[in-house]
Amino acid sequence: MQGNRQDICSKLQETIEEQLAPLVNSDYIYLDLPYHSNIGDTLIWLGTTHFLRSIQHQCLGQHSIDTFDFRPLPPNTIILLHGGGNFGDVWRQHQEFRLKVIQTYPDNPIIILPQTVYYESDDIFDRDVRKMNKHRKLTICARDNYSAELLNRHGYNGQLLTLPDMAFCIDRDLLCAEKSNITKEALLLLRIDKEAPKGRMNRQITPPRMDIEDWPNLMTTRREARRYIRRHTAQQTDTFFRTTFLPQRIREGVKFVSEYKMVYSTRLHVAILRLLLGLPVRMMDNSYGKNLNFYNTWLKDSELVSTPDENEQRSLDTAICLHHNNWCHALGRAVIHRLFPLIK
To answer: CA 173, 178, 180, 181 torsion: positive or negative?
Structure first.
């Protein structure tokens, strides 16, 4: 198991380094850093930081969409845009930021680090591609084969690479040093945001007995992050999130996913983190195919990563549906009590 884990993780890291490193051939700036609560994005951030250690050129700045001021840049400065799963119209704020960078810096080489591509609207997709095609030095890194196919199908004509997630560049010894002892049996890591799968109720199937959670401290961390950004200067914010927030969220994530003997995950980076730690994981899809497209492109030969079999999936679907209904009911009750505090 250990050998397989090392082989596939090392292979994916080498794929990134061989294809991406030659493109970062001058000083650069790294933008759209994830100053929010999703631990998956902090894993991408950490992996990108570790990748950039091997680059011989200087980093001229690292900023989020809240702290970058769109100042003039020398034309040979490379702009690196954070990877992830927000290329499209679901998480529109980040795509709008990318488009603004592309339009503001027509003479700078721009590299969009590995991203999953997903649009609900073909019209918006086509409009975005027309804007991106105007830039003469844009490279898009698709995070899976299907994302690359979509970009080609909608007429993107710039440089296009297909690369794994940047989290595979993380120093695995650093992660393993934070591992917890296994004290719990099973976890269904169920995302609760726009990409949450709905599941299907099957009353003849008993849902599995397991913990059902999303990333730890998701809502609390989101509120704290927003509060910090509002109250501090851009420079203070960049320093805090790089030196304090990032390592804290990484520690929380590693501790959380390593406590379980088995994890069934609807989040891509829970599966990636379990693989990096040398722990087994059953990989489930999000709402639109992102996870399984990545699995089929890069992970289907791994001994540690697999998908649930048909019986497991039906049982998990029932658990997801029940949990979703219970969560919506609890949320509704909370809203009612906030609006009408006298109701018992």
So the answer is: positive
